[in-house]
Amino acid sequence: MSSDTYHLFKATAEHADVLADFSRRTFREAFESMTAPRDLEAYIELHFTPEKMCRQLADRRSAVFIAEINGLWMGYAHLKAGTPPECVKGPNPLQLYRLYVSGAYQGKGLGQVLMKKSYAYAKGKGFKTLWLSTWAKNTRAIDVYRQQGFETVGNQIFWVGNDPQQDFIMAKILPGP
Ligand SMILES: CC(C)(COP(=O)(O)OP(=O)(O)OC[C@H]1O[C@@H](n2cnc3c(N)ncnc32)[C@H](O)[C@@H]1OP(=O)(O)O)[C@@H](O)C(=O)NCCC(=O)NCCS
């Protein structure tokens, strides 16, 4: 994907409302065909509020990168430092907490742009391992992560409303010095 077609920037607390709205939209788009509406909406109401987004954007352990095309938000990556699950054994781990691309732009390389930005950010901050948790039924995302060099290292339950979903935990040791 040519870099003159997209603009990447780090979101700030001022973007909380837009990020809440965009997160709702992309989450719904990704999972509404595979999740009971009540569970999907419960998750959205709990996690994608402007207040929660504002707290996360102000938190120095988090970084959210937005990919904009022609002035419109088309994807984002949210990185988050913290204690990982025990199965993540790599050194200095950072979580790729969320990675979403709008349906219209999926498969055009934007996910990879956001992943490359995530690797660069992680390395710049001294992290050496990137890990994530993804729904076992999300085969497309799992294929993309595998293609990017992530390996499955464990699993955990991820609650979407009252639905205890099985997640795979995947990790990748970042190459280079
Ligand atoms: C998963 C997601 C972020 C990937 O973003 P994307 O923009 O569609 O992915 P890209 O077009 O950048 O593809 C990334 C790489 O994976 C490869 N890829 C894409 N789809 C693939 C598939 N089904 N199988 C194997 N490889 C695949 C691409 O070829 C590309 O590699 P390349 O550049 O070397 O060719 C995006 O599809 C998405 O937002 N999905 C819905 C939300 C979601 O599931 N998020 C993850 C939650 S854990």
Explained architecture:
- This protein has helices spanning 16-31, 37-47, 50-58, 110-124, 139-147, and strands at 7-10, 62-69, 72-80, 93-101, 129-135, 151-160, 163-173.
- Strands 1-2-3-4-5-7-6 form a seven-stranded mixed β-sheet, sandwiched between helices.
- The model has no long low-confidence stretch (mean pLDDT 96).
- The chain has a single domain (7-173), classed as Gcn5-related N-acetyltransferase (GNAT) (Aminopeptidase).
- With 177 residues, it is α+β, with helices and mostly antiparallel strands.
- Bound molecules: coenzyme A (COA).
- Coenzyme A binds next to strand 4, helix 4 and helix 5.
Q: Spell out which ligands are present.
A: coenzyme A
Instruction: Please write the string of helix (H) and strand (E) elements.
Output: EHHHEEEHEHEE
Count of helix runs? 5
Write the CATH homologous superfamily: Gcn5-related N-acetyltransferase (GNAT)
Number of strands: 7
CA distance, first residue to last residue: 26 Å
For this structure, the CATH topology is Aminopeptidase
What structural category do the secondary elements indicate? alpha+beta
Poorly predicted runs of 5 or more residues: none
How is the largest sheet built, in terms of strand order? 1-2-3-4-5-7-6
Quick structural overview:
The chain has 177 residues and is an alpha+beta fold. The protein has helices at 16-31, 37-47, 50-58, 110-124, 139-147, and strands spanning 7-10, 62-69, 72-80, 93-101, 129-135, 151-160, 163-173. It has one domain: Gcn5-related N-acetyltransferase (GNAT) (Aminopeptidase, 3-Layer(aba) Sandwich), CATH 3.40.630.
